[in-house]
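Subject: design request, 123 residues
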């Protein structure tokens, strides 16, 4: 069945307290299932998803720590926050969300009753 009333939270439910590529942090007044950040520089775009209880990230250190062959020789020091978003699937935590979404049987036969995603372009 399709939900007729979506349990959308009162806005806003977050405050971005730091948005640098070496220090990102967010505070939530209502915890979503997960949040995502998109960081860009030139033709490079990096998406990072995190559980709501991970309030602080160091995106540049995270990406550099991967030692990606694809990004070898690229300058990432200019990464800037381009987008912030969060998703709410009621009654589902971060691990449960990805367990469900990565299971082709569950995703097609047992969809979430409601999944709300909020995205904000920063740049």
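Subject: RE: design request

Done. Sequence follows.
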């Amino acid at each position: 069945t399709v939900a007729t009333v979506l349990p959308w939270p009162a806005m806003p439910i977050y405050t971005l307290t730091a948005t640098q590529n070496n220090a990102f942090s967010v505070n939530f007044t209502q915890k979503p299932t997960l949040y995502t950040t998109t960081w860009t520089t030139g033709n490079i775009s990096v998406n990072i998803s995190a559980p709501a209880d991970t309030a602080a990230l160091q995106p540049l250190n995270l990406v550099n720590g991967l030692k990606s062959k694809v990004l070898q020789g690229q300058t990432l020091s200019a990464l800037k926050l381009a987008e912030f978003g969060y998703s709410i699937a009621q009654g589902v935590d971060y691990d449960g969300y990805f367990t469900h979404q990565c299971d082709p049987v569950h995703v097609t036969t047992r969809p979430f009753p409601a999944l709300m995603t909020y995205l904000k372009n920063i740049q």
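Residues 94-101 form the longest helix (8 residues).
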